[in-house]
Design a protein that fits this description.
The protein is of the alpha/beta class. 53% of the residues lie in helices and 11% in strands. It has a single domain (35-285, 328-431), classed as Metal-dependent hydrolases (TIM Barrel), CATH 3.20.20. It is built from 16 helices and nine strands. The strands form two sheets. Strands 1, 2, 3, 4, 5 and 6 form a six-stranded parallel β-sheet that branches. Strands 7-8-9 form a three-stranded parallel β-sheet.
Length: 432
């Protein structure tokens, strides 16, 4: 009898255990999905506005067989980059600043010509997919597009070199749809210092200050990513509207010049602006940044020792890269930067600025493309973020900044005409 009972138990227990595991699995999965479902609720209610996607330049530069060809880079199909329509929709993106980037080092033709070509590419992309992308010029336009199930699409110029020291050119870009301008890219200008170049002016020159005032009058957002701390500070001194950092992270966590110091984060409380935290690995992971710094030292040393042997330098660097693989940043690293900006500046002053299709590094694990935004919000939910605070991060903060910039512009346009000041007039006066 006992043997028979034991045999029954032996037969029953595996079945019982399996049944118990099966019944527990859905409950566990449901528990794991609570935060993701919360993130999706937030993104259904509020448009997620990404501050920076470099798709227009990717289309220009990454298709050597078809440069500048919007038709050839079909977003209805899976693409080689980080962005296509299916992934944008899975990522629940509601508003996108498409960067109309022109490198500050570009010398093949005039900056303004290339800028116009980039605006043309971006506008053709938006027009090609009207069922998914909708042109946007104001904060209300983004809300309207989101309500219609589309992605409100704006343009952001990356680098003030493209105005070629002309306020009239700045106004022309605004009329073509540009709604923010990053004051510099990586190169110091005649009127503003960049983060990764020499600080020739100590921030903004008088003409640089006039650029900021004219952007205020237009309603064009002042973007302080890429600029030096001196330029950040001067712009905050001059501007009458809130500023943005379209794709930067926290310098207290990763000490690189492209990130924002805490002293500037504190000033955003007064200014009302927003840091849109980027996903660039070298800006969110100190390990990645340190490896990049070591590589730069190694390359400089090899070039010094073998100035005429480019092939030998290339071989040596390939060996170094093999021996020193790039560490991977993670979604958690990005979440750490978001939390730091919240801690120092406040929850009203943080947003998202991915830089998808704009970095050569492998993107953070968990944030490989535009479909991954809900996963980031879910991680913050696990860290205790409420739905109200997630809404601010996703889009409410930057939409508030846009609305305030529009309000300031309406007042300033009543008070003063377009500026006719020139760099020769203003900065020569300063020099004298």
């Amino acid at each position: 009898m006992f043997r028979q009972f034991s045999a029954v138990l032996l037969l029953y227990f595996p079945i019982a255990i399996a049944a118990s595991a099966a019944s527990a699995a859905p409950a566990t999965a449901a528990a794991q999905d609570v935060h993701l479902e919360k993130a999706k609720r937030v993104l259904q209610a509020v448009p997620l506005v990404d501050g920076h996607n470099d798709l227009p330049w990717y289309i220009r530069a990454e298709l050597p067989q078809a440069p500048l060809d919007v038709e050839a880079y079909d977003l209805r199909r899976p693409t080689s980059g980080n962005t296509d329509l299916a992934r944008l929709q899975r990522g629940m993106v509601g508003g996108q600043f498409w960067s109309v980037y022109v490198p500050g080092e570009y010398r093949d033709s005039g900056f303004a010509r290339v800028q116009l070509e980039q605006i043309d590419i971006a506008r053709r992309v938006i027009a090609k997919y009207p069922d998914v992308l909708q042109p946007a010029f104001t904060a209300q336009d983004i809300w309207t597009a989101h309500a219609a199930g589309r992605i409100g699409s704006l343009l952001g110029a990356e680098g003030g070199h493209v105005i070629e020291n002309s306020l009239g050119t700045l106004r022309a870009y605004y009329d073509l749809g540009v709604r923010y301008m990053t004051l510099t890219h990586n190169v110091t200008l005649d009127w503003a210092d960049a983060a990764l170049d020499s600080a020739r002016h100590g921030g903004l020159t008088r003409f640089g200050e006039e650029v900021v005032r004219e952007m205020n009058r237009l309603g064009m957002l002042i973007d302080l990513s890429h600029v030096s701390p001196g330029t950040m500070s001067d712009a905050l001194n001059v501007t009458e509207a809130p500023v943005i950092f379209s794709h930067s992270s926290a310098r207290a966590l990763v000490d690189v010049p492209r990130n924002v110091p805490d002293s500037i984060l504190l000033r955003l409380k007064v200014n009302g602006g927003v840091v849109m935290v980027t996903f660039v690995p070298g800006f969110v992971s100190q390990k990645v940044a340190d490896r990049s710094a070591r590589r730069a030292v190694q390359l400089a040393d090899l070039r010094r020792r073998m100035p005429r042997d480019t092939a030998a330098v290339t071989r040596a660097m390939a060996q170094w890269d093999t021996a020193n693989p790039v560490p991977r940043a993670t979604l958690s690293d990005v979440a750490d930067h978001i939390e730091h900006v919240r801690k120092v500046a406040g929850v009203d002053h943080v947003g998202l600025g991915s830089d998808f299709d704009g970095t050569n590094n492998e993107l953070p694990v968990g944030l490989e493309d535009v479909s991954k935004f809900p996963a980031l919000l879910a991680e913050l939910s696990r860290r205790g973020w409420s739905e109200e605070d997630l809404k601010k991060l996703a889009g409410e903060n930057v939409l508030r900044v846009m609305t305030e910039a529009e309000r300031v512009a309406a007042r300033l346009r009543r008070q003063r005409p377009p500026s006719t000041k020139t760099i020769e007039e203003l900065d020569r006066k300063r020099a004298s």
